[in-house]
Specification:
alpha+beta; elongated; Double Stranded RNA Binding Domain; 3-stranded antiparallel beta sheet
């Protein structure tokens, strides 16, 4: 499934602010931190099932207004952070919309079951001899 072909960029809203942390003067005077805002509930490009799935799987990142918030302040320029935020958006959406793989049940081989039984037997015998020795001392 190629989500980039749907061009979600039309529905993005961006907010910029000053980044925190290290960076000295550059951080203190430039607004390089970028926050991507995507309203899941109001999206024209998602089906009703996809919206439900996203709201359920990305609940921690969606606010009360139904907006998905993704931020980036990793880079020194606003453009790089904007590109990073878009990349993160597509990765998260793709991961949330990908159905989980079905687990294929497998049988434990007979050889492995026999090895488990033998190991248990050895351990049991070892413990039996220990208890016999302790009784002799008392």
């Amino acid at each position: 499934m190629n989500l980039r072909s749907r061009h979600f960029e039309k529905e993005f809203t961006y907010r910029t602010s000053r980044s925190g942390g290290k960076g000295g003067q550059n951080v203190n005077k430039t607004e390089t931190r970028v926050e991507l805002i995507f309203n899941v509930a109001m999206s024209q490009l998602l089906s009703a099932e996809e919206k439900e799935l996203l709201i359920k799987k990305l609940a921690a990142r969606i606010n009360q207004q139904g907006e998905l918030l993704i931020t980036s302040s990793n880079y020194r320029t606003q453009l790089q952070n904007k590109e990073h935020v878009i990349r993160k958006f597509y990765e998260r959406i793709e991961k949330a919309l990908t159905p989980p793989k079905k687990r294929i049940a497998t049988k434990v081989p007979k050889v492995v079951k026999e090895q488990i039984r033998q190991n248990k037997k050895k351990l049991s015998e070892k413990k039996q001899t220990r208890s016999a020795r302790t009784r002799d001392f008392l």
